[in-house]
Amino acid sequence: MDKINYDCPKILPLVYDESLSYYEVLCKLVDKVNDVIDFKNLTLITDMKYSEDTEVLTFYVRDEQSQKNSNPSYNKEREEVTF
């Protein structure tokens, strides 16, 4: 997801009080939305990597199981079959 490209240069307030102008509120909102977009992009990348790692591990486990199942061995002393 792309960030919001809205330039918010620093300005001097017209009135020196604690209130924020609409422009300042808009700039803060844009900044927070961009932070959320960054976080979402990071989690998407992490989820994709996790998914790829899961697929590799699943393939590895299935491959190991198939190799074990194809070569069973019989232990005469214990009378057991090992896969």
Could you describe the largest sheet, including whether it forms a barrel? 2 strands, antiparallel
Determine Rg (CA atoms, Å): 30 Å
Based on DSSP secondary structure assignment, what is the total number of beta strands? 2
Strand order of the largest sheet: 1-2
Terminal CA distance: 49 Å
Strand content: 5-15%
What spatial form do the alpha-carbon principal axes imply?
rod-shaped
Enumerate how many helices there are, as a single number. 1
Helix content: 55-70%
Outline the structure in words.
It is a single chain. The chain is mainly alpha-helical and 83 residues long. It has 1 helix and 2 strands. It has one helix at residues 22-70, and strands at residues 73-75, 80-82. It has a two-stranded antiparallel ribbon with strand order 1-2. A hairpin with a 4-residue loop joins β1 and β2. The longest helix is centred in the middle third of the chain and has 49 residues, at 22-70. It starts with 21 loop residues before the first helix and ends with a strand. The model has no long low-confidence stretch (mean pLDDT 78).
